[in-house]
Design goal:
Elements: H1 19-38, E1 46-50, H2 52-64, E2 69-73, H3 82-87, E3 95-102, H4 116-129, E4 133-141, H5 149-161
Parallel strand pairs: 1-2, 2-3, 3-4
Length: 165
């Protein structure tokens, strides 16, 4: 899901940068197949993800701009160069965005991960200043990175589906 290659931050394997390949599959094959067979919901597409998939969702949202809304829950927005990427890719269409984070996520000994709160709030600020963002919601949930993941994703889905064009 990583948008570009990056050295490991946890002492494990490096990030391979497979996001572009997956995004191509998603946008060029999967979405057209699904929409051809199941139809669209009022032309509104959403992308969302949790953790590294939350980073992928945010990156894909800017990269292809075919999604009306995006949710990044506990997104890995600490990924090197991501904020600069967002600032260098102005949106052309109107969108809605949901961000969430666990209240304990920034309380970690890993200095890269400890920046997640500041970076998520920075992303919220960038989105609020963007005239193409109709609505942005940032929600701080109790707990750490792995707390109540299904419930948090459910909240994101509900919020996105409540946003009308």
């Amino acid at each position: 899901f990583s948008p570009w290659r990056e050295k490991a931050v946890f002492g494990t394997e490096d990030f391979e940068g497979g996001g572009p390949s997956f995004l191509s599959f998603l946008c060029d094959r999967l979405i057209p197949h699904v929409e051809e067979n199941l139809g669209e919901r009022n032309g509104m597409r959403f992308i969302m993800g949790y953790s590294l998939a939350g980073l992928f969702s945010a990156w894909a949202f800017y990269e292809r701009e075919i999604f009306y809304g995006m949710a990044s829950a506990s997104g890995s927005l600490w990924f090197s160069g991501f904020t600069d990427y967002v600032l260098s890719h102005p949106l052309k269409e109107e969108h809605v965005v949901y961000l969430s984070l666990g209240s304990k996520e920034e309380r970690t000994k890993n200095p890269v991960m400890a920046r997640i709160g500041d970076l998520t709030r920075q992303m919220e600020g960038i989105l609020k200043k963007d005239s193409k963002i109709l609505k942005v919601k940032y929600e701080l949930n109790s707990g750490g990175h792995f707390a109540n993941v299904p419930k948090r994703m459910q909240k994101a889905v509900r919020w996105l589906l409540d946003q009308d064009k």
